# Entry
Amino acid sequence: MAEEQPITETETPSVEAITEGAGPQLDELAALRQELEQTRAKEAEYLDGWQRARAELANARKRFQRDQEQAHANATAQVWTRLLPIVDDLERAFHTLPHNLSGLTWIGGILLIQRKLELLLEQEGAVQIEAVGQAFDPFAHEAVTHEPSDTVPEGHVISEVQKGYKMGDRILRPTLARVSSGPLSQPEVVSEPAEAPDQEPAGEN
# Structure
């Protein structure tokens, strides 16, 4: 019979040995995790920066478009402010035109020019400022005179001396207006004190 081999206990590796063997792997895993966290932090930083840059670009485009629109409005207002006196002159000329000249061809041509100017004003959004009968507005009206009036309330416009125009909220020029100062005050009538009745002379005793 074969000799029996002595039974020996299997040696169990110690915790120190396991830890010591896995040490390099744990260090590598920790380094990978740290690198991953740094990458994620950079990714969030880059994303935030990209979003900020995108928002700034959108705001810059809006500002540029708004500035362009404002520049166009300013240029248009300046042009029409210079042309309004011509519109006034044409209107005054036709108001004083003799009747015997109204049928002439060249008069009709000038009248056509006036109408085209008025049409252009309307197309650009320029409208006349309401004044007659309205309460005086220092932003839209300019008082030329303050006159007493029995028909127009105090502080209201009696009539226009020169028409005013506005374009949207922008005043191209204010209306030159005659403003009512209210009814003409009547002089106070001072009543004379009643005369005391004549006293009879005292009788003689």
In short: DSSP finds two helices and six strands in the chain. The first strand starts at residue 126 and ends at 128. The chain has a mean pLDDT of 81. The helical segments are 15-95, 105-123.
